[in-house]
Design brief:
Elements (H helix, E strand, L loop, with lengths): L11 E8 L5 H11 L4 E3 L4 E6 L4 H17 L2 E8 L14 H11 L11
Antiparallel strand pairs: 1-3, 1-4, 2-3
Length: about 120
Amino acid sequence: MTPIPSTAPTGWLLRISATSAPADPGNFEQQRQLLRSVAEFDPNTRIWTAYIGQLDMRALNVLQQLYDAARRFSTEIQLEPVAAPSTWQGPTFTDDSDLAALIAARADQGRALGQLHIH
């Protein structure tokens, strides 16, 4: 009997999205220069996207660049956990890691990871 391949995800990624703020061409170029090395840009949605599968220096650099863009250009940043696609070649958070548990708990609460409670 041949085993059926598992379709369950092997790990999780943090998808970080930054919605580009409306800006004049000069400011948009500054946003582009800041974010192009850490995220991919979709011109149709005007969203920059990056994926993180482990907390390391690269991840901290990605987060810092995206939050610098938010501070300087008022881009809107969202974090959400996603199952790593089978084509993903990088590291992933595993189901049993503390971070994966935190991500799952935050997602279950109906708000994006990083979104603060409003009092």
